[in-house]
Amino acid sequence: MPDFVMRPLASAGRGTVKTLSSVGRAWILFAGTAGALRHAGIWGPQLVPQLARIGVASVPIALFIATFTGIVMSLQASYTLTGTIPLYFVGVLVGKTMMLELGPVLTGLTLAGRVGANISAELGTMRVTEQVDALETLAYDPLAYLVVPRVIAGIVMFPIVVLLAMTVGIVSGWFTALQLLDMSSPEFVKGLRLLFEPWDVWFAIIKSISFGAVVTGVGCFYGLQTERGAEGVGRSATQTVVIASMIILCLDAFWAATLL
Amino acid sequence: MSIRIAELHKAFGPKEVLRGFSLEVRVGATAAIVGPSGSGKSVLLKHLVGLMRPDTGSVLVDGESVPDLGRRDLARFRRRVGYVFQFAALFDSMTIAENVGMGLKRLPGWRADRIRGRVDECLALVDLEGMGERYPSQLSGGQKKRAGLARAIAASPKYLLYDEPTTGLDPVTTSVIDALILRMRDELGVTGLVVTHDMTSAFRVADRITLLHEGKARFTGTPAEVRAARDDVLRGFVEGDPGLYYGLKGRGDHGP
Fold first, then answer.
1. Most buried by CB count within 10 Å: which residue of B114, B137, B169, B225?
2. Closest C-alpha among A59, A50, A32, A249 to residue A144
3. pTM given for the model
4. Which of the residues in chain A have pLDDT under 50?
5. What are the distances in angstroms from CA B50 to CA A42, A127, A136, A174, B69?
6. Among B88, B220, B224, B207, which residue's Cα sits nearest to residue B152?
C-alpha cells in the first residue's frame, strides 16, 4: 500500500492501541483500589491529612471564585432582564445557576487544577524517585497507602466545598443585588425561592461526588504512571488537569441528561 | 544456596536487558554484580523483591519462587528482605526516624515505644545518632544512603539488596558505606547482594563478584580470581579500558 495511505492508518492504529491500553490500566487501577479498601490499617491513618489537604485547603480558592461568580451572575442577570421581566428573577437566575451548574462545575474545574495537579505531581515525584517502590519493599500496598485515602477524601470533601461555594456565590449575588441593583432583600429572596427545588441541592451533591472521584482518581492514575524525571512529572500534571477537566464536562452533560 | 537465579530473561519492548542471567548466592555471603550503567543491574535486583516479573526464568529466594508469590505472600516475603535504593528513596515528607520506622509499623506486635527504640538502634548502627528528627532534604548524600540502609535493616531482614550503594559519593564516604555493608554481614549475619559499577567497592565488600555483560553472567569468581582473570571483557571493565571491554583493541577505536 502506498505510504500516504499507510501512514495515517498506522497512526490511527497506534492511537487506538494507546487509548485501549490506558483504559485497561485505568481499570486495573480502579479494581486494585477497590481491593485495597480492605487494608483500612494502611489507609486509615492517611485519611485525615488528605481530607485537610484536598478539602480544607481548597476552600479559600473555591470561595474566591464563587464570590466573583455570584457578583457577575447578579449583574449580568440584571442587564439581561431589565425592562423585560420583573427584576426579582435575578434571584431565580443566581440561585438556579449557582446550584445546578456554576457552583459544582467551576469548583470542579478549579480543583482539577489545584488538587488533581498536586496529587499527580506528588505521586509522580514519588514514582520517579523510587519512593513508591520503597513503599512496596516495606510491605505497603501503594494503592492502599496513596490512592485510597486521596480518592475517599475527594469523594467526601468535594461536595462540602461545593456546598460552601454555592452558598457564598448566592450570598455574594444577593449582596450585589442590594448594593448595585436597587433590589431589596425580600425581592431577591422571592426570586431565590420561586423555582427552588430541594432536588437542585442533591443534584449538585451527586455531581460534586463524581467530580471528586474523577479529579483524585485521574491525579493518582497519571501520577503513578510517571516516567522520566522532572519532565515526566510536568507532563503527568498537565495530563491530569486536561483529562480531569474533560471528564468533568462530559459528566456534567451526562448528569444533566439523566437526572434532570 | 539462599538466592538462586536461573536463565532470567527480561525485555522492555524490543530491548532485551537480561538474556539468560544466572547466579547463586550462599547464605551469609555478600555477592557483588558489576557492570556498566544501563547493563540491567538494577532491573535484576528488582526481580528479587518482586518489583518486576521476569519474562522467563526463575528467581528463588529461600526456596520460594518470588515471581509466583501472591500479593499477601509477597508482603510477608518482603519482610525478610531489605532494599537499599540507589538514591536512598527516602520519603521526603517524613523525618528520618519516621522513614526508618515505616516498615516496623506493618509488623504485628510493634508499638510506638518499641519502634522508637529500634529506630534509635538502627540510626546508631549507621552512625546517624541524633539525626532522627531531620528531614531527608537536610542530609548530605552519604547521610541519605546511611539513612536508607538504616530503614532497610530496621525489620532485621535476612537479606539485604544494595542498589549502587556508593554511586555519587566521595572516596571517604564510599569507604564508610563499604564498612557498613561488611558490618551488616559480620554483625547481623545477613546475606547481601550489591550491584555496583564501583570496582574498588566491589573488591572491598564482596565474597564473590559477577560481571553482568550483555544480559548474562560473563564471569563469576572471588575478588582474587577476578584480579587474576584473563577474560578481556572483565579486564576491560576492571581496568576501565574501553578498548578491551568493547573488543576494539588494535583497531584504533576506543568505544562504541
1. B169
2. A32
3. 0.84
4. none
5. 20, 16, 9, 60, 8
6. B88
